[in-house]
User: Fold these one by one.
Assistant:
Number 1:
Amino acid sequence: MAYQAEISRKNPGCFLFLVDQSESMEDPFAGGDAGKKKAEELATILNKLLHNLCIRCAKSDSIYDYFHVGVLGYSDESCKPALGGELSGRSLVPISELASKPLRIEERTKQSDDGAGGVMDQTVKFPVWFDPYWKGGTPMCAALKDATKLVETWCQEHPNGFPPIVINLTDGEATDGDLVAEARKLTAVSGEDGSVLLFNIHLSSTAGPSIELPGTASKLPDQHAKALFEASSTLTPFMVARATELGLPAGENSRGFIFNAQPLHVIHFLDIGTRPANVRLR
Amino acid sequence: MNHATAATAANECDIKVFCCPKSGNSVEEYEDAWAHRPTRTPTGLRVAVADGATESSFAKLWAMLLAESYVRSDVAGEEFFARLQPARRLWRRRLAGRPLPWFASEKAGQGAFAALLGLQIDAHANRWTALAVGDCCLLQVDDVGKGMRVLTAFPLQESSQFTMSPYLIGSRSDGEPLHERIHISKGSLRDGDMLLLATDAVAAWLLKQHEDGRPLWKWLYRKLRTPESFAAMVAYGRTHGLRNDDCTLVRVIHHDAPVAAKER
């Protein structure tokens, strides 16, 4: 049966993020605060996803390399590794290296429970790996092609591992070809434990209710959303069960597609051991 | 770590503890805990197993504190959980002032989480009381050597009830109240009854073997004696459906106290 491989430090999982940095990402994001650009929302989401992945793998005073993580940015007719600073030019890095090498660590204030029924201001570290950027066209097909090469290599090097998960964050307007056809080539790459999974996070300028993990395209608002839905993989049974536990409306036909919503639960779709149900996602 | 400890508490129970870490992990990374202690009032024994959650930090320390707190406590009901402040304080103190990188500090701030199963045996009254939060399980097997009936599976009864996201006990007290997650059960004991306290992976697998008509009760009663035999069982299990996780099994065999002892 596919998608059963245990994820461990010896047999790590792989998350590859594809991020749209095209000019259209400068437009306003319809799913959040007024005046926020899609590129800003994307940077917020990606930093939160990377942050949460690091926290998930943190173990006492160290961090376990349960995952390797990569970020490819696509804009201006090209696709290239998008992590900066000391990770510049790297396609995939172990999570421990990602955690220790953000671009910068900001300090932010958040309100938290004071343990006596009230709230208090608490200063928290907020690592930033990725800043908003936009320029030129949307070579999404080129990004999917590059991702295909990367995951092919990963699967050759980890033939018994859990298949890589590719997460594409975009406003959906590819300018260099048929994204569904390229997505099919990507998800045809496979190892012993199954095929590569592609999830799409659609940050749209089209107003409308958030849609998470739909089973059909019938309620999606435009052809870009429908194409991205078409390109998205069906969730595995474990993912459906985990999504349900997290309070999401997932069913057996659910696809890894999210429209104008926070996708933080996606990184919990892979099992690395007992997860306390009483820990809330941030 | 593949080891067993043996003890006879209050002359009425034989106890043996077996444990081993998740395959691929070192002994230091084993995050289950266990403890047992004879009691005077009532004359008998308190036993606990705890299972620190993989996806939480400093969970081994928290599991040890929970197991020790239970066996040193004198309450067997829900009120036990209202007395966890010293254990929580100790957990915080052990971490205080420790220089941690940002991710470790944030994870520690969420607290550690663990499942706990506590068992109090009143040897003279031949009664037991069990307390559980999470998915560590108590299995009571009767008629050992004959019909081998499973009298109790607590708090989970079937292998299909185990999940990867149980509600657990947090080392911080500001989380969701445990109230609705506490399970309590009571039962009686007969001479020769076997009580097994197991962390989730072992418990789920033993129940599955039982459901599939391949129960291991007889083997556990008669043949399980050494760390090596437990390691061999776990190794076999891991190729036959036992989830790769830390494994802990405490076996208690109850012997009805002699009349003279009861009168003392």
Number 2:
Amino acid sequence: MSRDSVKPAGNKTAVQSLNPIIPAAGSFVFFGLGQLINKNFLKALVFFLVPVLFFVIEISTSNWGKYADILTGSADEYISLQTVDYSLSEEKKTGSAASEITESSGSLASILGLGSDEEDFDWGSEEDLWASADDGSAAGYVESFYEYPNYDLSRNNEKYIVRDFGGFFTRGVWGLVTLGRIVIGDEYAGKYMTLYDKNSRWLVADNSTLLLGNGLITLVVIILGVLIWVLGIADAYQTRIALNKSGECEPFGEFIKRIWRDAYVYIILTPALVLILFFTLIPFLFTFLIAFTNYTYKIKLGAMLIEWSGFEAFANAVVDPAWLSIFSQIFAWTVFWALMSSFTVYVLGFINALIVESPLIRGRKVWRMIMVLPWAIPSLISLILFKNMLNKDGLINQLLFATNLMEPVSNFLFNIGLQGRPDQPIYWFDPVYNGNLAKFCVIMVNLWLGAPYHMMLIIGVLSTIPRDLYEAANIDGATGIQRFKAITLPSVLAATVPSLIMTFAFNFNNFGAVYFLTGGGPVWDPTKVPDSMRIIGSSMPGQTDILISWIYKLTFTQSTEMFNVAAVYTIIIFLIIGGFSVYNMQRSKSFSEDE
Amino acid sequence: MTQKIKPSTHHYFGGSYAKTRLFKIFLYTWLVIGCIFVLTPVLWMVGASFTKGKLLSNVPLIPSLSTFSLEHYEWIFTYKSQTNSFASDFVMAFLRTFLVAGVTTIGIVFLTSLTGYVFARYRFTGKKFMLLGMMLLQMFPSFMGMIALYIIFRSFGWLNNPVYLAFIYIAGAIPTNTYLIRGYLRGIPKSIDEAATIDGASQMQIFFKLILPLSKPIVGFVAVTAFMSPWMDFMLPKNMLDMQNQTVAVFLWRITDMLQPFYYNPLHFMAGALILAIPIMIVQISMQKFIVYGMASGAEKG
């Protein structure tokens, strides 16, 4: 490359030969400068528009203008008391509350401490409020408050200028680094304010979760910007080399064509990658970062902020003996469940496939149609249906009573140790002593749900086994069992082992099968709960809870959330499942053939 | 690899003794018992949906006229929580989910067939890393991430609008489906592309006029699975949407939630679930050809 740069340019050109480092450095200093040096004006404009766009976003989402006013002293009218008539917004609230359904939009809003009725969102001011849960207590009142903080009155001379006035970028980065500040204090703005006042703008603590999330969004946008910047530098460098060679500027149209030809792949991939960046990568980073904070329910209850706390949560989750013992029990059940559910489903699917496809059977299509039915019903519906069937009044108990089988079945279940007590309507999922029965039921229901899928899969594989193999075996006089062992079983196994591994990975995280059926219940035996875990109350796992559904409880149970521990467990699951799938992919031929 | 599925004419197992009557009886017994297990819950659901009242214990084991009633279907089709709404709550939720499913399907088919094509046919730096990274990221359990998604939706102002959920479904489905389509396209010989290039076709023309029609079976599979996913999803709509904009899964779940006594009625659920399940079953069973094919090829390619 450096050889090219020394090479003299063509003699007829208006462009002088130039070391390509110079335009590259130009692009390094500022977007589009190198392109300008290369005399690609249109291209320079395109690159130049990127920082302009960033700048516009920053300015339009910030209050820097107001801050400048405050600095120059021309903002007296802003800082003066504003009078707000709350009766208006109150009216709006009752208007929407008049409709019959008024539950909040799900648990997340309340977990984040946000009101469910969002007003216009703007980056600068309102999003980090600790909103109080009670709206509409007084029906319309007038109150005055400060529109902007009065730094003259700040205690300790603390000023959070970026927090109060920053825009999308500055504020995002500030939030990600600091996770917020508590700026409560009457001196801060010269007026007393309660901590949870929803309508105050400046005097409350930050919502660290929001700052973290918004910070990540900012970070991703900044990364995109940096990518464009690097592209600009590389482009300036390479264009200059080409320029020095040919001595002619590449017209913009040519450039677009060349880019389309050379970077076709990346352009095609961009929309997919951007989607993955926002909706997969940000949640991933968020969870990952939460594991290194002290984010638990305590944050919500008191005036505390999330803080970076290193490996504290890992220590809590993995080293604390009480947590460790519960975790290891849940983990053992999760592994057992994943193995059992995959195995039973596969075996039953295999048997069903063989029988349905057997030439001895008439009306194969009809049988197949019926056997496939559970797969065609949405799993959510089947699970709720089974939850109702296994209810105390549900179909199973009704059938047992109607056929006078209740007593023997109940005794039988008691004798083989599945049922803790020989109850007479059987409480399939309920009391503490029926943990084993509930676990058994979950596996059985999953068998009902999952076997048809494997049946279809194996039917598909069976049809791909070459027929000549069987004919050859017939000629050799192999018995049916021998044929099955030598041909059918190996061929099907070879074709389905990858999907068996994926079934294991899927069942390891099969949240629905547990949550919709038992909700994790029956509850953990209270006498066996370690003392240091009692604080998490209803976030305690039930006896059928697998790891993923416990994580759900740790994340979404109101007022006993243990976000950081849930994040740690999520990472543990990820390592296990990710390991499985990487192994699965590496051993598949089509993947390792690449490159 | 791409053999057509024909009715089997040979014995996967079973030899000389298998032809005995005993074995045949065993097979039929197995099938009949299997069908009883499969059909009982379904028939119970049908029976329960035609039963009066709101108690599961009222559901008769043998259908009887004394408890017969259409009230649950009536509720499903007429109950409106807001007087100004265009149809009943259930129908609205159904239509909303249909919209989400449609947008998701279009997005997934368009994006993943393109990315799958690129991953199958082009060499570029970071290819293997991207594919592996995508597959890995997708494995990450998403409950905690839902908080982040909520924050993203909040800052984009997308909360309570079901259509935007499609973005999350699309992003979540890209890795697996890309991998599937890539595997399929590797089976189509490259010489076809080359011949078309010589004839002067552009890259996009090759994709749309040549590759896409050829990959119909796998794209059909991707489309069916994409269309199905929003119907069964629960966590995302529950957290991102309020009740007025809810999808049908959460709507049905709520009427079986005992903590909401105003709505709790498991028999309403049975009626609604049947009405929801029937079109889905029709789609699943009529698309069986695609699905079995896709499953088999997915299993082969890993």
